[in-house]
Fold:
Amino acid sequence: MWDKFNLTMLPSHGKLFVAIFTALMLAVMVWAGGLAAIESGIFGDDEDEMQAQAAYDYQADMEAITTDSQAVTAPNWADSGQEEPITNEDLGKFAGSSGETTWDKFVDNLKLGHVHLNGHTALFFALGVIFFFSTASIKRKKLVYWIFGSAILIHAIGLAGTDTCPYAKIFIYIGGPLILLSVFYMSIKIFSDLRKKGAA
Structure:
């Protein structure tokens, strides 16, 4: 039954729907890939930001804060106007030192990996169903499904280990491009089938 139907047999409105859906899915992945490339610094860092960081004098800023804190005291709102001096611990908070532990980072990354796993799995299913009806050979379909599915899992594992595992970026750099290549190949095959006229 499934062998007798493929995308070339869709009516014009069906082809339009599949084409728009595939184009949107491709746009999602190109957008995500572009963001990843920008954030990884492939295109270089923002020169203005780099110059500002290089010119910023942290020591002078901390000295100014210390001097100000000796002259001004922070109110203690818990006790009707009684004031407390700002301590060095407070200065650490002002300077942006993070109290986040490695475990907290890992849990946050697990959540991030879970979100990506959900989204990519939905993409796998949606685009995979349409690709199922393409004229690609069964062997080629199986290969693409295996690569795409494995890449999603590898990418999610890499995201879960970001900043806590030294090998996490390797997983991200393997999984991410394989996801993009899978989506790109499936989309090209779907678009090529939509251009053909099939026998009803």
Remarks:
- Helices lie at 12-40, 47-55, 58-71, 88-94, 102-132, 138-160, 168-195.
- The longest strand covers residues 73-75.
- The mean pLDDT is 79.
- Residues 51-94 form one domain.
